[in-house]
Amino acid sequence: STAEFEDIDLTFNLTQFQVPLLFKAKFAGTSVTPFVVFGPAFGFKIDAEFEAEGFDAEDISDETESVEFSLIIGGGLQFGPASVEARYDWGLNDIDSTELESAKSSTFSILFGYGF
Length: 116
What we know:
Blueprint: E1 2-5, E2 8-20, E3 23-26, E4 33-52, E5 58-59, E6 67-79, E7 82-91, E8 106-114
Antiparallel strand pairs: 1-2, 2-4, 3-4, 4-5, 4-6, 6-7, 7-8
């Protein structure tokens, strides 16, 4: 994510390996089948960096939580073996482990798939 402070661009990069445990409900359809997905996800931190414009990146892994819990909701359409889906991933816990700040993540995703 990016922010600006006194005309200086700030960038926070958090790299995670996320494991979603999603439930999928399909609705009756003819050639197009609508569906919804929902459930928890667990993000395991791989790396965390902070960078200010004009300065080198700083490792802030010690200042971020190692696990993030989130809730995913979404829906989509399945066209035979192909599908399109939109998801919202809402971070539930504070990923900043210091007591100075609070940070929660949120992600909107569009997915395209093809099953074989």
